[in-house]
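Annotated sample (chain length 399).
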Amino acid sequence: MNIVIAGIAEFDPQIGGTERVSVILADCLLQHGFGVFFVGVEKYPDTKPYTPIAEQIFLPNESEMSCGENIHCFVNFVVEKKIDVILNQFGNHYDFSILCAGVWERTGVKLLSAIHTDPEYVKKLYQSDISLLETPSWLIRQIKSGLKKTFTFRLKQAMKEFSTLYSYIYRESDAVILLSERFKPVFKKMAGLSETSKLEAIPNILSFPPTSESFPKEKQILWVGRFDSLVKRPERMLRIWSYLEKRHPDWNVMFVGDGPCKPLVEQYIKRLGLKNVLLTGHSNPINACKKSSILCMTSTFEGFGLVLTEAMQFGAVPMAFSSFESVFDIIEDGITGYVIQPFDLKLYAQRLEFIMMESRQREIMAKNAQKFVNEKFSDEHITEKWISLFNKIINHCPC
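Output written by the structure step:
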C-alpha cells in the first residue's frame, strides 16, 4: 500500500509537532512495508539541513495552494506513484483541504483528513484572558477584555467559518482523524453532523523510542514551547514561579523555546524580579527533559501536547491546565501528574510546590508517567491504529 503524507510545508522534524509525528509515522510505516511519500507546498527559509526519510516533492505554487496548477501536479504524482491513500495532516487549513479534496475527486484515491489541534481552539482563544505580556496594565487589560466580550459577532463569525470547514472536510474525506475520542462530540457539534461514522481518533505517536531508564534529576522545572501571547503563554509560568521562587532558592525554571514575545518575556522577568530563570532559546529538549524533575505547560489550548509525553518519557512529572480535552488522555491527575482548572495560577503554584517538596511522591509519579506513556503511545501501538484504519478505508471493512 502506498501512502502520501501531505502538508502545507515541508516535513522537517525540526520545525514543529505535526511535522515531527508525521516523520515518525512515515518511518514506522516504511518498516511495515508501506510505500510512503511526502507532498508539501511551502519551504521554510531558515530550516537546518536534513535528509527526508522518504521521497518529498513540493507543489509549484506557494501563494495559491488550491490552484489548478498544484492540483494537476499532485494528481500526476498520485498516478505516477500508484498512491492508495492521501493523509492530509492539515485538515484545519481550508485552502489546503480544498487542494487535497480536488486530488481526491480526480483520482479516486482514499483521503484521510487529520485535525492536529483542538477543534474548538478559536473559541478558547477568544474567551481566554488578555496576556500580561502584551498588556501589562490591569486597567487596559480589563478594557480590552470587556471589548472582546462585547464584539461577540467576531467569535460567531469565526465559529461559523470553522463549522463550514469541518462540514466540508467531513463530506469530502473518507475519514476525519482527531487526536482524542474526547474531541469527537466537539467536532460533531461544530460541523453540525447527524452521524459520525467517518470520525476516527488516533493520538500522536511518541517522539522518542520508549525507555525504562531512570535519569538523575535536578531541582529544575521545565517549560517548553513557542514564546507567544495567545496559545503557549509563558508569562503564566513566570507568574506561577513568582509565588514560589523566594521560598525555594535551590530550584530554577528553564524555558526552552523562542518566538516573537521573547523580548517581552525578558522584560517581564525583570519586572517580577525573578533570578532563577534560564532562557535557553530554541533547542532539542531531550537533555532538558532528562535532568528536569517537573514539566509545566501553561497553554490556553493544545491539540495533544507533545511536550507532555516527551517529558514523561524521561521521567519528568507533567502539569497542565484542563483547557483541552485530550489532556485527560495523557495525564492521570494525581497519579502521573497534575491537571489544574484553567487558569488558576495560585492553585497551579500550590500543586507545583507540593510536588517540588515531596521528593518521594515525585519519584513515584515520574515512574508512573514514564510507564504510562511508553505503553499507551508507543510507535508499535499507534502504528497499528493507523494500519487498521488504512485497511478499513481501502477494504471497506470494520476493524
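Annotation: The two ends are 17 Å apart (CA to CA).
Annotation: The first strand starts at residue 2 and ends at 6.
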